[in-house]
Design goal:
Blueprint (H helix, E strand, L loop, with lengths): L2 H11 L34 H16 L5 E5 L27 E6 L1 H6 L20 E3 L4 E4 L5 H7 L3 E3 L16 E3 L17 H12 L3 H10 L6 H13 L5 H15 L4 H11 L8 E3 L3 H8 L8 E4 L5 E3 L19 E4 L5 H12 L4 H10 L5 H9 L3 H25 L2 E3 L6
Parallel strand pairs: 7-11
Antiparallel strand pairs: 1-2, 3-4, 4-6, 5-6, 8-9, 8-10
């Protein structure tokens, strides 16, 4: 069944999986920019965008992984265009990796698991095809004499790269090019040697931070350079030190030194927080379970729509535009303090981030074009479109921007007498 037909059948039957607990929560989901690209706007959270992508995720990650369904999958880039009307999607080739899921088929195991059949009767296995073995040559070229099966090619793609026919690598007899193992990227980390931050590693970092999974966080910091994610991992690292996890105190000391050396807004605040967790200083800031990333989305953006308030009991960030269920003027019991108002400080700092990032580039032509792109209205959009021509630099910019934004949010919160903390780690 094609996935679009599945969507129609689900909607007709009233099956409506939902991602968020309330309409207000939609405002925390966005493309590119928390203000302009929020999914809270009408028409920006259509069924295929939210419920549909969630359905594809469940089918691809769970049903297919468990072997309940067979899937037809292609390169997700350009596979769907149902998100093109959304702000910030102009330069996106896909909304998610699940865009490439075209169709599914319930297999015998799935039919048995869902009660459609009384017994499990697997399909006959296809006749085995004799294949020549994969060989690893002395120069570490990996050669498949008769090519690779799709599953083998997918596995090998995780750590190998194709070599052009004109290189010294041997060509495959089956007509395809050979593959050569990719060299690991090395840099400085808590353990001395590290790999570069990949999309997968950054997603794991975010998951570890949001789930308060401190052991996983420490493992990631040992394998990767922490300098690019100091603000993003600081609160979870503080919790790891407080819990007395092995290696946490040493990691906090190294990150504290790196923060002071870097000296961006909010870095000194976080460095003092790490020193406090390690018992080297006394912290006078009150803990608040607020996410610096969500707070930065309130502080920065369009002044006409930005700003909001923080629930001092739960740490929830509530955008002003979406905060309509309760009055801003509601009376609180005497002697209580529930809300912390958050002003919108505009996008000046975000613009300055683009200027500062350009100065870090070692590619003169790209730096010159980006300098032109940020002149006049539409600077943010043109900057990202131009930078998208260099995926590696675009990745660097997202890390750079996230660190700067969360650092400013941390500095603002400290001025109000608070510091971010993980839920349950007050």
């Amino acid at each position: 069944m094609a996935v679009d037909e599945l969507f129609k059948a689900m909607r007709t039957a009233g099956h409506d999986p939902y991602l968020v607990r309330s309409e207000r929560a939609l405002w925390t989901l966005y493309l590119e920019d928390a203000q302009y690209g929020s999914l809270g706007y009408d028409g920006h959270h259509d069924w295929p965008v939210l419920q549909g992508r969630y359905t594809l995720c469940v089918l691809f990650e769970y049903a297919a992984t468990l072997g309940l369904v067979d899937v037809q999958y292609i390169d997700p880039e350009g596979a769907r265009d149902d998100f093109r009307h959304m702000w910030g999607a102009d330069w996106l080739q896909r909304l998610s990796r699940y865009d490439g899921l075209l169709a599914i088929r319930l297999n015998p195991l799935g039919a048995y698991a869902t009660g459609r059949t009384d017994a499990y009767r697997p399909r006959p296995e296809p006749a085995a095809v004799a294949r020549s073995p994969v060989r690893v040559l002395p120069n570490f070229d990996i050669v498949a004499l008769d090519g690779l099966a799709p599953a083998e090619a997918l596995l090998l793609d995780a750590f190998a790269t194709l070599v052009a026919p004109e290189t010294a690598a041997l060509a495959t007899h089956g007509g395809g090019p050979p593959v050569r193992a990719k060299p690991r990227t090395r840099g400085s980390s808590l353990a001395g040697v590290t790999e570069a931050w990949t999309d997968h590693a950054l997603k794991a970092l975010r998951a570890a931070r949001h789930n308060a999974d401190c052991p996983s966080l420490l493992a990631l910091l040992r394998a990767h350079d922490p300098v690019g994610v100091l603000q993003q991992c600081g609160d979870a690292l503080t919790a790891a030190v407080s819990r007395g996890l092995p290696g946490a105190r040493e990691a906090a000391t190294a990150c504290s030194s790196a923060l002071r050396e870097r000296g961006w807004p909010g870095d000194e605040v976080l460095a003092e927080q790490l020193d406090t967790a390690g018992g080297r200083a006394l912290c006078l800031l009150r803990p608040l379970p607020v996410d610096p990333e969500e707070l930065s989305s309130l502080l920065e953006g369009d002044p006409a729509w930005g700003g909001g308030r923080i629930d001092l009991g739960t740490g929830e960030c509530r955008p002003a535009l979406a905060d309509t269920e309760e009055s801003w003027d509601e009376e609180e019991p005497e002697g209580t303090e529930r809300w912390l108002d958050v002003p919108c400080e505009g996008s000046r700092d975000a613009y300055r981030d683009m200027e500062d990032f350009i100065t870090t580039l070692d590619a003169p032509d790209l730096a010159r074009f980006l300098g032109i792109a940020i002149q006049g209205p539409g600077a943010f959009r043109r900057f990202k479109e131009m930078l998208a021509t260099s995926p590696a630099q675009l990745q660097r910019y997202w890390l750079f921007s996230a660190e700067r934004q969360q650092g400013r949010a941390r500095a603002w919160l400290a001025d109000q007498g608070y510091r971010p903390t993980l839920s349950g780690d007050h």
